[in-house]
Amino acid sequence: MENLRVKDRVESLASLLDVGTLVKIKHDGKMSPMIVELKKRSGEVIKKDLNLGVSPDEASVEDLSRAIFKAYPKWDVTRQRLTTVNNKVLEKGKSLKSYGITNGSQVVFKDLGPQIGWGTVFVIEYLGPLLIHPFFYFNQKLIYGSEAPMTQAQTWTLILVMIHFLKREFETLFIHKFSNDTMPLRNLPKNCAHYWVLGGLFLAAPIYRPGFVGFLGGGIPESMLNGLLGFFAYAQFSNLITHKILSDLRPPGSRVRKIPFGYGFNYVSCPNYFFEILGWVAITALNGSLATLLFAVVGAVQMYVWAVKKHKRYLKEFGDKYPRNRKILVPFLL
Question: Tens of pLDDT along 259-297?
């Protein structure tokens, strides 16, 4: 009789299990690890039975990434782009079941190639002007074949450029939190070109040549110089504050996005770009260089394009919660 009762219990338990899945109960009572099929976008199967090492209820995107790296060490987690069969990107911090991925499901993998951290990218980008401007300033004879006493415009240009890009390096190391961990290494030359070529060589070559005085000729009146230096300091400090506000919105290690408020953000979506532009307006007015003017215009146009995208993303993500009276880049105007 006792054997019949045990048999009935086993049959009842078996009827509750989904026999359509590959999940089985081990002898120790725990669920067996989740298995997925990994394939390329072309449909080619990479691995039919990738073992994630955790149960389907516990499996996360990170677990999947680690399992791929364990099976294929050449594909570290930074090189992996993972999507569902419907091309929905799998985001870190989320469970696989939230994407409808269960035991035996297919996951699409793409190798992004060698990667480089965004923090490292920024450090390398800003290093260009920090090296190039002093080199031109202190090596007139070597570069131009002659030399002359440095003018007020030249000296202050060097000082302000160094302050600007040293601030950028400080923010990169201690303030910024990046939405993405890495970018493809092959994109590094393109990213550096703006700062090393335009912000470095293109600015330095005409400004530090012997006798350059800018469009103000013999020098800048002291009152005007003090005004421009104060304006530059205001722009740089304001830019720093807005970057700190953006950084504080995101908890360490997360990709949470919130609506920014406070200094500058009550008027425009991207005050950090607005204050960045003001800083270059001050440098342009101080040295009177057409090269500086062109660099400032190119930067302003690019920042406007970025600001429009961010403004649209805010509206799409937060809907009616996002303040409708905010402009994109310039308070009250644009």
Answer: 999 999 999 999 999 999 999 999 999 998 999 999 999
The H-assigned helical ranges of the chain are: 2-16, 61-71, 118-138, 140-144, 152-174, 188-193, 203-207, 222-249, 271-287, 290-318
- Candidates 262, 266, 263; CA nearest to 332 is 266
Q: In this structure, what token pair is assigned to residue 92?
A: 């870190």
Q: Which residue has the tokens 């009276």?
A: 325
Cβ atoms of residues 36 and 50 within 8 Å:
yes
The 8-class DSSP code of residue 225 comes to H
Alpha-carbon torsion, ordered 272, 273, 277, 282, to 10 deg: 10
Residue 23's pLDDT is what?
42
Q: Is 25 helix (H, G, I), strand (E, B) or coil?
A: strand
Instruction: Encode 109-142: b = buried (16+ Cβ within 10 Å), e = exposed.
Output: beeeeebbebeebbeebbbbbbebbeebbeebee
Nearest to 76 by CA among 86, 62, 87, 90: 62
| Dist CA 148 CA 201 (whole Å) | 20
Please state whether the predicted TM-score (pTM) of the whole model is above 0.70: yes
Beta bridge partners of 109: 82
Residues 112-140 have a mean pLDDT of: 95
Pairwise CA distance, residues 94 & 84, whole Å: 13
> Which amino acid, one-letter code, is at 4?
L
